[in-house]
Amino acid sequence: MRLGLFMMPLHPPGPPMHVHIDQDTRKCLLLEELGYDELWLGEHFSAISEPYPSPLMFMANLIPQTKNIRFATGVINLPNRHPAVIAGEIAQFDHLSRGRLIFGAGTGSLGSDYELFQVGDAARRQRMLVESLDTILKIWSSKPPYDIEGEFWTTRIQKSISEELGLGEMPKPFQQPHPEICLPSASPNSATVRLAGQRGWSFVTSSLLPPKLVATQWTEYLRGCEEGGHEPDGRKWRLSRNIFVAGTDEEARKRIMDPRSAYQHYLGYMRTVFKNIGKLDSLKSRPDMRDDEITVNGIIEERVIFGSPQTVAQKLLALREQCGPVGTFLVTGADWSGPNEEWESESLRRLAKEVMPLVNAGNKTSRVAAE
Predict the structure, then answer these.
(1) Is 246 left (phi over 0), alpha (psi -120 to 50) or beta?
(2) CA-based diameter of the chain, in Å?
(3) pLDDT < 50 stretches in the chain
(4) What architecture is the 2-245+312-336 domain classified under in CATH?
(5) Would you state the pLDDT for residue 276?
(6) Where in the chain are the domains?
(7) Of 179, 167, 351, nearest to 252 (Cα)?
(8) CA 371 to CA 368: how far, in whole Å?
(9) Whole-angstrom distance, CA of residue 52 vs CA of residue 149
(10) Which residues have C-beta within 8 Å of that of residue 71, sequence separation ≥ 6?
């Protein structure tokens, strides 16, 4: 199994962006040192708590400082701009990184960005997602003249073409036919995951989806693969989870329940966001739970996999047994203020060096037993 980090990133508002950039850069270089396979970074135009409008720009700075880690957009929100712009930027980054790019694409999840770009209707955003991806793939697979007409965008170059001068042709990616395309989902029985299966793309399951509902994503992916004539492949499934490792179960609990813990801030933030948009039910551990019973510590108990390396490995193996053949675990990144840099650095190190060898050994044992 592979291991990556989904760095939203989420920070307490207040410090200027360059402080967060410095912190997140240190974290990314640590991932490279520890042998993590992937780094995922989100895109938000209107949230200083999730402060990066351009994940590609942030990750481009890391290309010369790294050799192995793959960069993933988590995600480029396709309804927000013309697909020709996205196609060009993705192609350029793919060449800059010599093919170390995963193209994570979605509709976005931030209400203020919806308002900013006037894309508030969910059904409309989903149609924009499909049209944008279809347009991008046509751009990458064809030469001018271009005449791509859609419901939302027109992509046309017919007059200003000179093959001799290289004018009129849009850039193609380094990876052929194109970088891996990965769609995100935080919903059970997800139509987005089904679409990924239909098209032969990958998908990533959000850490916000309750563990008991994660298996529904694999079911929808299988359905989509059957409909699209594609062979199901667990390597195309990434599962994002909140994972925290310390030397012992007691130390992990002490740190993660500490008022200074970044998980206290992160899950408190998410509780407030969900309350404001009327989706607190998705954080409840039982249907009859009252809203005032949903506490940050309760969410941590329910949604964070924490403990010693042995405990976390057992929990990850049990989760994979329950939900399906996940190919990559993505640990959710945390803010590094206060003691959190030391705590999360240790957690990331233990996860890579102590937990994953146990997980992979357990997976190998399970496969041998099954055979």
Answers:
(1) beta
(2) 69
(3) 370-371
(4) Alpha-Beta Barrel (3.20)
(5) 85
(6) 2-245+312-336
(7) 351
(8) 5
(9) 31
(10) 38, 39, 41, 59, 62, 63, 93, 97, 100, 101, 102
With 0-12 CB in 10 A as exposed, 13-18 as middle and 19+ as buried, what is 322?
exposed
Whose tokens are 């193996």? That residue is: 317
What pLDDT sits at residue 363? 80
Q: For 50-96, how does the pLDDT look when each residue is reduced to its tens digit (9 = 90+)?
A: 999 999 999 999 999 999 999 999 999 999 999 999 999 999 999 99
Four-residue CA torsion sign, 206, 207, 210, 216: positive
Q: Which amino acid is at 224?
A: G
* Amino acid making up residue 234: G
Tokens of 123: 């059904």
Any idea which residue has 């990458």 for tokens?
A: 140
Q: Which residues contact 136 (CB under 8 A, 6 or more apart)?
A: 83, 86, 87, 90
SS in 3 state form for the chain?
CEEEEEECCCCCCCCCHHHHHHHHHHHHHHHHHHCCCEEEECCCCCCCCCCCCCHHHHHHCCHHHCCCCEEEECCEEHHHCCHHHHHHHHHHHHHHCCCCEEEEEECCCCHHHHHHHCCCCHHHHHHHHHHHHHHHHHHHHCCCCEEEECCCCEEEECCCCECCCCECCCCCCCCCCCCEEEEEECCCCCHHHHHHHHHCCEEEECCCCCHHHCHHHHHHHHHHHHHHCCCCCHHHEEEEEEEEECCCHHHHHHHHCCCCCHHHHHHHHHHHHHHHCCCHHHHCCCCCCCHHHCCHHHHHHHHEEEECHHHHHHHHHHHHHHHCCCCEEEEECCCCCCCHHHHHHHHHHHHHHHHHHHHHHHHHHHHHHHC
Supply the pLDDT for residue 66: 98
Is the separation of the CB atoms in 315 and 305 below 8 Å?
yes
First to last CA, the chain: 19
Q: What are phi and psi of 284, to 5 degrees?
A: -85, 140
The pLDDT of residue 283: 87
CA 88 to CA 94: how far, in whole Å? Answer: 10
H or E element that contains 128: helix 122-141
Angle at 73 between CA 178 and CA 252, to 5 degrees: 135
C-beta of residue 161 within 8 angstroms of C-beta of residue 144: yes
